[in-house]
Design a protein that fits this description.
The complex is a heterodimer of chains A (319) and B (279). With 319 residues, chain A is of the alpha/beta class. Chain A is built from 13 helices and 10 strands. In chain A, a hairpin with a 2-residue loop joins β9 and β10. In chain A, α4 runs parallel beside α7. Chain B folds into 2 domains: 166 residues, no CATH class; 77 residues, no CATH class. Helix content of chain B is 65%, strand content 3%. Chain B is built from 11 helices and 4 strands, in the order αααααββββαααααα. In chain B, the strands form 2 sheets. Chain B has a two-stranded antiparallel ribbon with strand order 1-2. A two-stranded antiparallel sheet of chain B has the order 3-4. In chain B, α3 packs antiparallel against α11, α5 runs antiparallel to α6 and α8 crosses α10. Classes of the chains: A alpha/beta (319), B mainly alpha (279). The interface between A and B is medium-sized, with 23 and 18 residues.
């Protein structure tokens, strides 16, 4: 499923004195198969953007397609102005506004099983009596007709996929687990419906370096095996440089740039203008460039180090 | 979705009423409520309404925000009015008639006294709400709790820990925005997992709230623990020997307000004496 947004705009508290534009004219495409990064400060609109992706915020201005699904939601007046042909969910004849709203809602619910969203600190959303119950919540909501065996199969698979021991944790209370384990359970609760797109808001916030590394590795494994597209929201440039295939930069509700990290971090000026930093590798590279050593890297630590070593070896040979 | 609940929320600006001492304001509101219940006729209400109008004008709060506060209790107002219209049961009840048809059906009847009473109740409730809203619109929650602590100070003598009550109140008020934010986030997360809070019968709707309330409760406890630790680490030890950062001070405004209130009281009493009938 591709994500295509065109001129997406969102205003909080529209037509009140507290009106504020959270998104301004966002035109952005996320191709299937990408490990996409969204970076920006708090208040840059990145959270608002991801809430659009599974219909938590209905699209009011501009357009957004997630796969085949048109996320546009028509207000009462707008809907009344539509012709029978253009109205969504209509087969020849336009639905009443109430029925349209219901159909839209049902459509969004269906979509949510295919676009999983993991919010910040997802471990605070656990509520189940056991890990099993909690992970099964999504399955029971989205596929109410599935048999207990099917539910168990899905839950088991999800729990194993996030790297937990199913037999050990399934009957435990999620509140008895460690912080890192809780987060994994929360993640399992989202991927249990086997979404094609997984969106994660600051997935590694508050984890220790080891936990962070493990979780990112886990996301890569999921990306390789089950989930086609992963989108992570982050403010840590190193995480983004290290993991993403493409990065979008948000600032004050606007989309500043979309590029693979290799291009984006080459010229750090644009990022500095909006008050964002570049990854450590990019800082080192530009410091080296000032001394006359240009390093062509994709800004992952591993690549950067090997290129520097290469350069250094050549130098030694030359002198 | 939760942002609509906050009617009567503090409206920041600099005005005569804003700058009054919160203690005076609380006492005035208590007096105001007493006046409303003393009033026996509409003339008295006119006097009280005049007082309210003066307060609104000197508070610089837009009239729209003040009126909006009635919305929250509209249901109660309408219910009280309807009950009065249909169920007046006094001995002097005279059932009204339109074109010779008596307005009476089964246990319902529309009487002249019922209509008057309904109007009287409506005005009374609306005035009550508007008056108390002026207090919350012009006083920050912190000032309010501070004033309550000061006003209840005498209770300390009979060993009631007033300071702790005030502290509990201010902490509760302080965390309302956080809890709302948290609720929004949890609602979004559970919706993303297919939760549906709007369909099904009452029982299943209540049941669907568990995935929201439980995490909310857990996080409230977590916050409480963290706050407790933070207070401990700054050596908080209750009211004893505690000084205030912001001291409440009476100013020239407060006696002026008191005089106006006394004038209103006199007006209400005179109205009651000279106009013994409700209309």
């Amino acid at each position: 499923m591709r994500i295509v947004s065109q001129g997406l705009t969102y205003t909080y508290n529209k037509s009140t004195p507290f009106e504020s534009k959270a998104l301004k004219n966002i035109t952005l495409t996320v191709e299937e198969g990408e490990f996409f990064g969204i970076i920006g400060h708090t208040g840059s609109g990145k959270s608002t953007f991801i809430q659009h992706l599974n219909g938590l915020i209905p699209v009011s201005e501009g357009s957004l397609y997630v796969g085949e699904t048109n996320m546009k939601f028509y207000g009462k007046k707008e809907y009344a102005a539509l012709s029978d042909q253009n109205a969504p969910y209509a087969e020849g004849k336009k639905l009443s506004y109430r029925k349209y709203k219901k159909a839209y809602k049902a459509d969004m619910k269906k979509l949510r099983s295919r676009v999983g969203v993991v919010f910040q600190y997802p471990e605070y959303q656990l509520f189940g009596e056991t890990v099993f119950d909690d992970v099964a919540f999504g399955v029971k909501n989205f596929f109410p007709e599935s048999t207990p065996q099917e539910v168990e199969k899905r839950v088991k698979e999800a729990v194993l996929r996030v790297g937990l021991n199913y037999d050990e944790v399934k009957d435990k209370s999620p509140f008895d687990l460690s912080g890192g384990q809780k987060r994994r359970v929360a993640l399992a609760g989202v991927i249990v419906t086997e979404p094609q797109i997984l969106v994660l808001d600051e997935p590694v916030a508050g984890l220790d370096p080891q936990g962070k590394k493990e979780l990112l590795a886990l996301l890569h494994t999921l990306h390789k095996n089950v989930i086609k597209t992963i989108i992570i929201v982050s403010h840590d440039m190193d995480d983004v440089a290290e993991n993403c295939t493409k990065v979008a930069v948000f600032s004050k509700g606007e989309l500043i740039a979309v590029a693979p990290p290799r291009e984006l971090f080459k010229d750090g000026e644009k990022l500095k203008e909006v008050g964002l930093d570049v990854p450590l590798t990019a800082r080192l590279a530009s410091a080296l460039a000032e001394t006359g050593t240009v390093i062509d890297t994709d800004f992952t630590a591993e690549d950067f180090i090997s290129r520097v070593i290469e350069k250094y070896k050549n130098r030694v040979k030359r002198t | 979705m939760l942002k609509d609940v906050t009617f009567g929320q503090y409206y920041p600006c600099e005005s005569f009423v804003h700058k009054m001492d919160p203690r005076t304001k609380i006492l005035l509101v208590i007096a105001y409520i007493t006046f409303i219940f003393l009033v026996k006729n509409f003339i008295g209400f006119a006097v009280v309404a005049l007082f309210l109008a003066i307060a609104v004008i000197f508070s610089h709060v837009p009239i729209k925000s003040v009126i909006r506060s009635v919305k929250g209790v509209l249901f109660i107002v309408v219910l009280a009015a309807l009950l009065n219209v249909f169920f007046y049961g006094g001995a002097d009840a005279e059932v009204l008639s339109i074109g010779g048809v008596k307005l009476k059906w089964w246990i319902f009847s529309i009487t002249r006294q019922g209509l008057v009473n309904a109007a009287f109740m409506t005005v009374r409730i609306v005035l009550l709400v508007l008056g108390t809203c002026i207090l919350t619109l012009t006083t920050t929650p912190m000032d309010l709790t501070e004033a309550i602590e000061k006003l209840l100070y005498p209770l300390n003598l009979i060993k009631i820990p007033v300071h702790y009550f005030a502290l509990i109140m201010s902490i509760a008020l302080r965390f309302i925005p956080n809890l709302m934010e948290e609720t929004d986030r949890i609602v979004n997360a559970q919706k993303s997992r297919g939760a549906d809070f709007e369909s099904g019968n009452l029982f299943s709707r209540v049941k669907s709230l568990v995935p929201i309330l439980l995490p909310l409760l857990v996080s409230a406890f977590r916050r409480a623990e963290e706050l407790g630790d933070a207070m401990d680490s700054r050596c908080y030890s209750g009211a004893k020997g505690r000084t205030k950062f912001k001291k409440l001070k009476f100013s020239y405004r407060d006696p002026i307000a008191a005089v106006v209130a006394l004038a209103v009281l006199a007006g209400v009493i005179l109205a009651n004496i000279y106009f013994p009938h409700i209309i």
